[in-house]
Fold this protein.
Amino acid sequence: MSVAPVSKFLNDKPLAPYAADWRRSRGRLHPEPASPTRGEFQRDRDRLIHSTAFRRLAHKTQVFIPLDGDHFRTRLTHTIEVAQISRALARGLRLDEDLAEATALAHDLGHTCFGHAGEEVLDACMAPYGGFDHNAHALRIVTRLERRYAGWDGLNLCYETLEGLVKHNGPLRGPYARRRGKKEIPFEIIEFDNIFPLDLELFASAEAQCAALADDIAYNAHDIDDGLRAGLFSLDDLRPVGLVGGLLAEIDALYPGLERVRVIHELVRRLITRFVEDALTESARRLEALAPASIEDISRAQAPVVAFSPEMERAQKAIKDFLFTRMYRHAVVLPVWKNAQKIVRGLFEKFFAEPEAMTDEWTQAARPCDDGGRARVVSDYIAGMTDRYALAQAREWLGDGSGFA
């Protein structure tokens, strides 16, 4: 059967001149023939969705452990929400939606079990061996740890997707990175950059910047949703929080006496809408001022082109400050955080001392290594665990002492 012409299947809608163009991608580490039915960024998106690491996000904590209820966010639901918002931003700015979505789908792949609690203690365990960084680990997953293809390790993603994963929050070197107090670049990123240069001193594409901003929007809106549903704070507690209080007053005026669950939903949807509308307006202003004629003009800009206005930046900081004290450090959450760290530390110490306690594949990987190499294998093993698998391993190797059992 003959292959249909590419143009029959691929979307050729006109994009902005500064958008990423899959036809002019800077390529893959391992060259591959083009697909007759999908653009290069579509292929990356699909590879991420079908990856093992992506599926594991369903059972990794966002803020709560799954035992707290079925309706709270996991890493997977958060990632899907980020991808949706990222596409909306890309569409509004005439950017490539597939690349924006691919970057969003990849952005949390490197997170450990038990959310930031797990990452914090794994970083401490790995301090003598180069530390642990979830962004660097995500790069490690998509370039090495996923073993699915006959010809290479990893997913063999395009340059543009990889640079978005690594640099969606901005350059890792240069003046902008120094102004933002970027810490030392993780060695995994430097190691890969030596093989496949990612221009660490330059900005990633506008599509990747959409994914970064979408992450902030999703976090702010949906952590408010989860915190309210968990009873960690009330609607009245939120009224002094600038933008949120204004939206609650708007809902009260439009729908007096509305039941609480609907008020929460109305608040979340309005919050996302305001963030997105502000981001589109501010980003359009920045793009007009910069007048980029190519994607290279975006990468060499002095600041992000996709951003909130100063007023909205202040509003979102106020929300983050509220959530930090009233949710992430809540008296109900802190014991969960500490127990999670106890599990991760205990498992690291167990598997480092006895690599044979890991599954066969990982035991074989650890055996020929020196201490640093063995620590990295153990770190990879634990970082890939879902919350429930980590709990099962804790019960098997550490006894009941987790508080989760």
Observations:
- Residues 362 and 381 are 7 Å apart (CA to CA).
- The two ends are 57 Å apart (CA to CA).
- Confidence is low (pLDDT under 50) at residues 1-6.
- The chain is about 60% helix and 0% strand.
